[in-house]
């Protein structure tokens, strides 16, 4: 308690002093402060987002263009947006900023969803559009300014997840996961389905685009499988196997400092070059095999590959690290796993068991320096070290979902949305 606070304060003043005398750079000082704040989450007592929904909030997303507007979807079929920076009014008596909904669309309007909203997604470029998916079998694209539906896609079953790539520059595709076992890609530009990706043997509960490659899509299903797709090519090119672990020493997720954007880009470029070199080597080696042995090997490996599982239960949540090197997954087997995206290997980080809801998707959050993982577990947030799997702290109750913000985290309660502050 007090000892930990005192140690943090001493460390903070040491950082300030080193910055004053020029021993540390502005970037390293900023990294240290962010790391300290992320490890001292408490429930904010100065800000309250007043939920406009009449039932449980199922899903959240904050826009990536301004990190200002929160989109929320609820079990009563309603969708609302909130400004989390500019408050609606300030309660001087309680010293609290209150944030009311900017708008609410629900089943009372003709175009509203008739059943629970399971997933929401902002258009990545700006906040002029947003996407919703619902148990009423529809994915809808809304105009934020008019709160009217501009496009809708009829799905073959309940919609569990929707997602758009935050880095895409050449496509406007919405990845959708439904109770049908096919992943479908909807194109906002044409208003049509462009891809149908078969492979899962049960409903698709989680979709996640790569944070470093606009063509790479990850999906998780009720069959316990996590599949990798390159949407430029036919078929799934990788199915993760929980028994396929990282060979040799696993590179650390973090180095203790937040890498600069240029450093992350150089690492990504080096990895891509390494991957390309490996692919060429494999191709050259394969030409030395005769055609018959290639066909036999392909038949055996494909059969094993197709039935591999990443979890012993439904995969309900996927999240990439900001650098795109790693993928986190959560399942109803109460396990959280960290995967190396390049090799497809389970890194065997021993995260504590979690209590994942079986009827909804799971939103996983990762700190900006990839050092901490935030998992909703029953009525708390579990905060864990990403590279070692160690508990950092438990906080907040009774939580359903969460997502990261510039100031901390947003936690969703059964009928309320509250914020947590980073100290």
- As a whole number of angstroms, the C-alpha radius of gyration is 22 Å
Distance between the termini: 14 Å
Which word captures the global form? globular
Q: Main β-sheet, in a few words?
A: 6 strands, mixed
Strand adjacency order, main sheet: 5-6-1-29-28-27
Task: List low-pLDDT spans.
Answer: 253-261, 275-303, 397-401, 411-423
Q: How many strands in all?
A: 29
Strand content: 35-45%
How many separate helices?
Answer: 4
Helical residues, percent: 10-25%
Mean pLDDT comes to 81
Category by helix and strand content: alpha+beta
How would you explain this protein's 3D organization?
The protein has helices spanning 2-20, 26-38, 261-286, 291-306, and strands at residues 42-49, 57-62, 69-74, 79-83, 89-91, 96-99, 101-105, 117-122, 129-134, 138-143, 148-154, 159-164, 173-178, 183-187, 192-197, 204-209, 216-221, 226-230, 236-239, 315-320, 326-331, 336-340, 365-366, 372-377, 380-385, 391-395, 401-404, 408-412, 417-421. With 423 residues, it is of the alpha+beta class. It has four helices and 29 strands.
């Amino acid at each position: 308690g007090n000892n930990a606070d005192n140690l943090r304060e001493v460390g903070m003043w040491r950082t300030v002093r080193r910055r004053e005398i020029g021993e540390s750079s502005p970037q390293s000082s900023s990294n240290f402060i962010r790391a300290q704040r992320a490890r001292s989450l408490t429930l904010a007592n100065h800000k309250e987002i007043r939920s406009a929904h009449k039932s449980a909030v199922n899903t959240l997303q904050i826009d990536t263009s301004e990190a200002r507007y929160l989109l929320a979807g609820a079990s009563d079929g309603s969708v609302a947006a909130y400004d989390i920076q500019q408050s609606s009014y300030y309660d001087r008596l309680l010293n609290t900023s209150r944030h009311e909904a900017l708008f609410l669309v629900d089943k009372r309007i003709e175009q509203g969803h008739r059943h629970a909203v399971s997933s929401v997604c902002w258009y990545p470029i700006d906040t002029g559009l947003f996407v919703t998916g619902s148990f009423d079998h529809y994915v809808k694209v809304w105009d934020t300014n008019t709160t009217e539906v501009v496009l809708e896609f009829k799905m073959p079953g309940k919609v569990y997840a929707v997602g758009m790539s935050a880095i895409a520059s050449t496509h406007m595709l919405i990845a959708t996961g439904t109770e049908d076992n096919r992943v479908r890609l909807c194109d906002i530009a044409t208003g049509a389905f462009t891809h149908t990706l078969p492979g899962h043997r049960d409903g698709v509960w989680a979709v996640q685009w790569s944070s470093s490659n606009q063509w790479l899509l990850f999906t998780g299903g009720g069959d316990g499988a996590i599949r990798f797709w390159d949407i430029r090519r036919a078929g799934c090119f990788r199915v993760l196997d929980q028994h396929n672990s990282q060979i040799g020493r696993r590179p650390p997720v973090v180095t203790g400092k937040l890498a600069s954007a240029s450093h992350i880009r150089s690492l990504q470029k080096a990895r891509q070059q390494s991957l390309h070199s490996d692919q060429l080597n494999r191709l050259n080696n394969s030409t030395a095999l005769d055609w018959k042995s290639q066909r036999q090997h392909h038949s055996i490996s494909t059969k094993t590959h197709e039935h591999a599982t990443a979890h012993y239960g439904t995969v309900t949540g996927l999240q990439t690290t900001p650098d795109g090197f790693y993928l986190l997954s959560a399942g109803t087997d109460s396990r959280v796993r960290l995967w190396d995206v390049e090799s497809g290997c389970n890194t065997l980080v021993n995260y504590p068991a979690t209590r994942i809801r079986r009827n909804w998707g799971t939103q996983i959050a990762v700190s900006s320096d990839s050092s901490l993982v935030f998992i909703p577990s029953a009525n708390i947030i579990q905060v864990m070290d990403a590279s070692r799997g160690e508990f950092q702290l438990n906080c907040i109750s009774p939580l359903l979902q969460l997502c990261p913000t510039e100031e901390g985290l947003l936690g969703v309660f059964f009928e309320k949305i509250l914020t947590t502050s980073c100290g």
